[in-house]
Amino acid sequence: MTIPHVAFRSSDSLHRKTDGFIRRMQDGATRPEPQELEAIMSLFIDEALTAFLTRAAEAARLSPGMMKVVGMTTQTINKTTHLVVSRSVKKLDLQQNRDAASYMDQVRQPAAGEDFWYVAFPVDEDMAALGKSLPQLCEENPEKARNELVRYLLALTDQAIEWYFERPMALLQFGPVLRKVASMGVETTRKASRSLINTLVPKLNAEQLKASAEFQASQLIALPARSH
């Protein structure tokens, strides 16, 4: 059975590093791997930001001024999340490394009939239907489409933060200090993303709006359901 996911293509480098880490943890690793875990998380953050922000902005053919705003937002989130990662990975014990590997395995999926993998999280049918309807809505009612695109992107932000930050943080059972650092990182990411959406989407012209809607719809892919 397949269900809708929001997915981006993993680079070969990210897949190899993640796959190796997962296999070592599953095969009875005897010590944590903070350096490898930090390298994986840093690469993942870079690729997720590229997929969700940079490529989305390029697909919409934003003006140089708008691209600069996207770049500044990306830098803010990147800096904040890298700080959280660097502070946390050194403190994780072997069981937490195993838990991290298990979670990584849950949010990756092979592309059917292809030689690459997705990083993906499931979304409900209503959210998927909204995302898929956006390109057609741009043709029929552009201003309604603009409002619905904002609604979709705000929901997508919350879902991405839940799957890529909040769930793994809960799984790893951070102590109070790390939990505080991580929570600050999450809220900075949420605030910066929401600000970007609310600033840029109202400024899109009709062509940019349609291109943005098509990009968001293209990231919705039917993939097998996983146990989470």
What is the secondary structure topology, with strand pairs?
Blueprint: E1 2-9, H1 12-26, H2 34-59, H3 64-89, H4 94-106, E2 108-110, E3 117-122, H5 125-140, H6 142-172, H7 176-200, H8 206-218, E4 220-224
Antiparallel strand pairs: 1-3, 1-4, 2-3
Helix pairs in contact: 1-2, 1-4, 2-3, 3-7, 5-6, 5-8, 6-7
Looking at this protein, list some descriptive labels.
single chain; 228 residues; alpha+beta; four-stranded antiparallel beta sheet; 4 strands; globular
Structural notes for this entry:
The protein is an alpha+beta fold. It has one domain (2-224). The chain contains eight helices and four strands, in the order βααααββααααβ. It has helices spanning 12-26, 34-59, 64-89, 94-106, 125-140, 142-172, 176-200, 206-218; strands at 2-9, 108-110, 117-122, 220-224. Strand 2 and strand 3 (117-122) form a beta hairpin. Helix 1 (12-26) packs antiparallel against helix 2 (34-59), helix 2 packs antiparallel against helix 3 (64-89) and helix 5 (125-140) packs antiparallel against helix 8 (206-218). It is globular and about 60 Å long. The protein starts with a strand and ends with a strand.
Beta content comes to: 5-15%
What is the radius of gyration? 18 Å
Shape: globular
Largest sheet: 4 strands, antiparallel
Could you tell me how far the N terminus lies from the C terminus, measured between alpha carbons in angstroms?
15 Å
Fraction of helical residues: over 70%
Order the strands across the largest sheet as they lie in space.
2-3-1-4
Number of DSSP E strands? 4
**Helix segment count?**
8
State the low-pLDDT regions, or none. none
Order of helices and strands: EHHHHEEHHHHE
Structural class: alpha+beta
Overall pLDDT confidence: 94
Tally of distinct domains:
1
